[in-house]
Automatic annotation (TrEMBL):
Catalytic residues, chain numbering: C76 (nucleophile), H164, E166
Encoding gene (name): guaA
Positions bound to ATP: S218, G219, G220, V221, D222, S223, S224
Subunit structure: Homodimer.
Species classification: Bacteria, Pseudomonadati, Bacteroidota, Cytophagia, Cytophagales
Protein name, UniProt field: GMP synthase [glutamine-hydrolyzing]
Enzyme Commission number(s) from the entry: 6.3.5.2
Catalysed reaction equations from the record: XMP + L-glutamine + ATP + H2O = GMP + L-glutamate + AMP + diphosphate + 2 H(+)
Amino acid sequence: QILILDFGSQYTQLIARRVRELNVYCEIHPYNNIPAITPDVKGIILSGSPCSVRDTDAPMVDLSRFRQHFPVLGVCYGAQLLAQTSGGEVKASSIREYGRAKLGTVETTNRLMQGIDPHSQVWMSHADTITQVPDSFHIIASTETVRVAAFQVSGEETYGIQFHPEVTHSLQGKQLLHNFVVDVCGCKQDWTADSFVDSTVADLKAKLGNDKVVMALSGGVDSSVAAMLVHRAIGQNLYCIFVDNGLLRKDEFASVLESYRTLGLNIKGVDAKEQFYTALAGLTDPEAKRKAIGKTFIDVFDQEAHLLEDVVWLGQGTIYPDVIESVSVKGPSATIKSHHNVGGLPDFMKLKVVEPLNTLFKDEVRAVGRSLGLPQNILGRHPFPGPGLAIRILGDITPEKVAILQEVDYLFIDGLRRYGLYDQVWQAGAMLLPIQSVGVMGDERTYERVVALRAVTSVDGMTADWAHLPYEFLADISNEIINRVKGVNRVVYDISSKPPATIEWE
Ligand code: XMP
């Protein structure tokens, strides 16, 4: 594997993703919390950083631990760190360099630079630049304005590059990473979804033995894939619980339960609708609603878990971005996301936690799910928030409002599928607004509810744009909703991006 030392760059996760796309396993660790180095580590990548090596409190590592023991590739800050700690000079650039640049000269006989076109476009993002390198540093690429765009230390497999090979705007960045990871480090490209399934199932078997595991499933991709892995390892010793909180989509409880049963999971569906509606009665504040739902979930889950005897483990679908965030250079994040679907593990349950997906990115989770034979209706599902329709009904929640919104949501999502648009948007749903507006139906004046449709494109939900859905589709869906859902006489479409808006309205 490749070890990536993170100095806090916004692009560090991208380095990991690119390395994994080469079918090579890698891990990110903060520069100030490096684990013991295992024999399977074949190379080290030093990430970029928002800091300057010239700062007195610049993030530092003892490079002698790595240089001459492993191949090392410094990217941006990492390259500057290599240069500066070897007696080179790093200064603030006279012009800040952000964006596209073209390489000018490239030493293509160098192992790192094999196959890189001398005029290849690269992506720069740096305020400092390396102005002097020691004699032992051999420059292997330059641009018009950056003389030390890439170097190798003579007699060492130590390299530095000023540009960012991990961003797609560096057009041959993947080739360069391939050169480093495969040719220089000698990594085998055998890390695939199938190999992950085999090794994870074997690890889980060893770790769990005959122990019993309980898991809450949400119908979403992460918890479903995690459950399938544990199930493959321990079969019926995995007890799954799927709670109907009364805030799911129309017919979703029954259909997801059916899918899980078909997959052979030992699953219990728990109808807790009334418990959730009672807890939510009269609450209008979004955070109060979230808290009430989280607490009720724990109560229900705890009740159910106590019916099971001798359970030792709690399985969770935590994925790698949550883990990276909670151990990041910037310190543990204020919001703990890893218990999203479970709403937090109460201390008194004293269960050990098993998280088989905590080294995977979202697209890798999908690939593993495919390898495990999960159906597309689970794998391709849009994200859906834990508090469900409760944060799409602005104001207080009643079963009647839920029923109206379920119908609207059903017509919208079904329409997206019929028009072949479902897979083109990242997430879609409808909001029930706490206002009424005047309309006319036949000869009658109406005074009914307004719903807002929301569909976004996004990569990770952190930023999003409103989906530019075809007018004909919107016209068709608007008609259908108003004609078929009693109590709604107006449909609007949300054209806000995130930021400054959020995806959900609450
Ligand atoms: P926002 O509204 O913050 O949403 O732009 C970003 C993504 O997170 C989902 N979301 C939640 N998921 N519990 C969840 O499990 C929540 O309380 C919650 N709030 C928002 C939202 O659906 C979107 O995918």
